[in-house]
Design a protein that fits this description.
Number of domains: 1
Number of helices: 14
Radius of gyration: 19 Å
Helix content: over 70%
Distance between the termini: 32 Å
Order of helices and strands: HHHHHHHHHHHHHH
């Protein structure tokens, strides 16, 4: 009897799978701007992130318990660690930096350099060495991101530690991505691991929100729209696709798609909030596309 094809054989056979998943990741990853735009006017950053992670975790919890293998304590504890890095430090670090008046454009630029940090960590941690073409693609993609972000860049007057926090949050998320790829023995199905991650974030963000005055959400339509967007698109879709791709492809190839987040974010802003588009954005988008193609090719 013929053996069933392995996951790697399926991936090789269906070469359209990576572009499809990468496109979904880019759309979902960049859409976080939309939910934050709606909800942040109504509540503090800590309250916003608490309800985003709590609702995400509570919705996933019955599925995590009913479907998939039994969640063993060792694996859950490991996933809690990933939740601290990939949810609490990553999302909370950038949010706190913006709250401390680090310019949003600079925060966005640093957050979108995750693939560069991932590429640098992949070889020493995982042994996934990038070839010359992929390093060239990385350099081209970073150039495209800089072109797209140039008009919105400024250094502001935030304290030095806030800038360091921004850079540190990006590095921690990159390390978590590489580490997750390298700890396959502790990997859970995506819905189970994401449930643990978001509930971990909810506990920590809840403590922060209580320290700042409480967790009561504003009962407004804008906050509700923002929460629906952040939970179902920016959390479920973005993290699920990202974690799924990490189990299928080299981590540098997965994260390369994030380089396209800045120009797609600007398209979201144009469609939903009528923010103007500039020629530099389209030129930067074209440059970034070339860089991502070089990095992910083959």
């Amino acid at each position: 009897m013929r053996a069933l094809p392995s996951c790697s054989e399926i991936v090789t056979r269906h070469r359209i799978l990576y572009p499809l998943l990468a496109g979904l990741l880019i759309i979902a990853w960049s859409s976080g701007f939309v939910g934050i735009r709606y909800a942040s006017e109504q509540a503090s950053v800590a309250v916003l992130l608490f309800w985003r992670t709590l609702l995400s975790g509570v919705i996933l919890l019955p599925f995590a318990l009913a479907f998939g293998p039994r969640m063993r304590l060792r694996a859950v504890i490991s996933q809690v660690g990933f939740g601290v890095m990939a949810v609490f430090i990553y999302l909370g670090g950038f949010a706190l930096a913006i709250e401390q008046r680090v310019p949003t454009g600079l925060v966005a630029l640093i957050s979108d350099l995750v693939p560069l940090a991932v590429a640098a960590m992949s070889q020493p941690v995982l042994g996934e060495r990038l070839n010359l073409r992929q390093w060239l693609g990385t350099a081209v993609a970073v150039t495209g991101v800089l072109i797209v972000s140039f008009d919105s860049l400024s250094f502001g007057t935030a304290p030095l530690w806030a800038y360091e926090l921004t850079l540190g949050s990006m590095m921690v998320f990159s390390f978590a991505s590489v580490l997750r790829r390298g700890r396959e023995s502790l990997n859970m199905p995506v819905h189970q691991s994401l449930c643990v991650h978001t509930l971990t974030g909810a506990v920590l963000f809840g403590i922060c929100a209580i320290a700042q005055g409480g967790v009561e959400p504003p009962m407004t339509a804008k906050f509700a729209i923002g929460m629906v967007w952040l939970v179902f698109i920016a959390t479920f879709a973005a993290y699920s696709v990202y974690y799924t791709m990490l189990s299928m492809y080299p981590v540098a190839k997965v994260s390369a798609a994030i380089y396209l987040s800045p120009p797609v974010t600007m398209l979201w802003a144009w469609v939903l909030f009528s923010e103007p588009l500039t020629p530099a954005m389209f030129f930067g988008l074209a440059v970034t596309l070339v860089g991502v193609w070089l990095t992910a090719r083959g």
